[in-house]
Amino acid sequence: MIARVQPFPTAPEATLVAPEHDGSALDRIGALQRETLGERVTGELRSLLVAGRLAPGEKLSLRRVAEALGVSMMPVREAVSRLAADRALEVLPGRAVRVPVLSLEQFRELTRLRLVVEGFAAEEAARRATAANIAQIAAHDADFRKAASADPPDSAGAVAANRDLHFALYEAAGMPSLIEMIERLWLKAGPILNLDMRDEPRRLKGGSAMQAHARLLEALRAQDAAAARAALEDDITAAAAHIEDTGQLSA
User: Fold this and answer.
1) Closest CA to 213 of 149, 159, 169
2) In a designed cystine with 147, which of 35, 87, 158, 212 is the match (CB 3.0 to 4.6 A)?
3) Angle formed by the axes of helices 176-199 and 225-245, to 10°?
4) CB 121 within 8 Å of CB 178
5) Domains of the chain, with CATH numbers?
6) Cβ contacts of residue 122 below 8 Å, gap of 6+?
7) What is the distance between the alpha carbons of residues 211 and 202, in angstroms, rounded to a whole number?
8) Is the peptide bond before 12 cis (omega within 30 degrees of 0)?
9) What global pTM score does this model have?
C-alpha cells in the first residue's frame, strides 16, 4: 500500500524587495575590465619593444594602436603611462609618444647591466637546463642559422629566432624574478639591438652570433657554467661593439 504523501504546507506569500543599487560594485567591475584591457595593451607593446618591432625614435599613434587591438583609447593611454614610467616609451611635448633614442652612455650602461644579469642567467641555465630546454634552445639556433644564411638574409626571422633563443636560455635558469629583470633591460635595449640586426645584414653574415650560440649550446650540454657565461658575454659584447661602430646612438 502506497502511503499518501502530505502536501507541503503553503508558506505565506513572500514580499520581494528590489535590492538597492550598489554603485560601488558596478564601478569595481568597470575598473577591473579597464585594468584587464590596460594590461593586455601593455603586454602587446612590451612584446613589440622587446622583439625590436618598434625602432628607436619611432612615434606611436595611440589611435592606430587602439584600432589594431580593438580597444578604446583609455587602456592604450594607461599602457603608455606604465611603459613611460619604465622609460621604455617617452611622452613628448604635445602628448606625442615615441620609442626613446639611447645615448652612447645609456647604451653602455645597459650593456654592462646585461653582461651581469644575463651572464648570471646563462650560468644558472647551464646548471639547471633539462634536455628539453636544450633541445628548444637548439631549435631556435637552427631557425636563426637558417634565417641568417638565406640569400638575402631573412633579418626579421633572425631577429625573432635570436630573441626566442635568448629567452629560452633565461627561462631554463628557472628564476621568474630574473626573467622580469631581463625583460626590463630588453624593453630599453631591444629596439636598438634588433634594429641593428634588421638593418645590417652583414652582421648576420659575419657569423659572430652563430659562433657564440654554438659555444653556448656546447657549454649547456657539458653543464659548464663558466663557458656558458663566456659565450653569452661574447655574444652581447660583439653586438654592442657593432652598434657603437655603426653610429646609431645619439650623442
Assistant:
1) 169
2) 158
3) 40
4) yes
5) 35-98 (1.10.10.10), 104-245 (1.20.120.530)
6) 169, 173, 216, 225, 228, 229, 231, 232
7) 15
8) no
9) 0.80
